[in-house]
Amino acid sequence: AQSVTQPDIHITVSEGASLELRCNYSYGATPYLFWYVQSPGQGLQLLLKYFSGDTLVQGIKGFEAEFKRSQSSFNLRKPSVHWSDAAEYFCAVGAPGGGADGLTFGKGTHLIIQP
Amino acid sequence: KAGVTQTPRYLIKTRGQQVTLSCSPISGHRSVSWYQQTPGQGLQFLFEYFSETQRNKGNFPGRFSGRQFSNSRSEMNVSTLELGDSALYLCASSLRTGTASYEQYFGPGTRLTVT
What we know:
heterodimer, A: mainly beta, 6-stranded mixed beta sheet, 4-stranded antiparallel beta sheet, 12 strands, 50% strand, B: mainly beta, 7-stranded mixed beta sheet, 52% strand
């Protein structure tokens, strides 16, 4: 079974600074990888996804993530954060062929933006 | 295109009661998945419905059940409510073709409080 670890429960970043949120996964082969964002009182929104191919993927809202097979990681980055980026971020891993039930989510990282 | 809608948004119930939550997927999406989100356990997969049939099920007791109608709308039911059932219940819809089945579109959730 796959698992996802997001080591940072909370991260505080100054507005305009760069951001990196960590995600490590455990899976026997190359999984499908996702980042979702959840704003207060909202459901989750898909930021970006990796299925195969180029290991650097671009998403919405200026986010990108890099798949590193050797480190079993899929870290999320943004060069300059905005106050509106304050939210909960979830990394998820899917087992190819597993469909919706194959999605396993990390516990989330709460991003706080300082003015 | 309208997003995933969930009703009601908030619900307060008493232990031992039962509850029914409703989800309307994005038009054209025939797969509907349900998740439970709690601070302690995070996001956990409940079940997925496609073509009015439960396709996958997470590790939850039989008190949690669901169904899907011919128009793809879905309901989930929790019987004999326990305090631990207090959570945000999220519904997500997707196309069920290839990798698109992993791209979940979430509704805003139903906040259930059991007293």
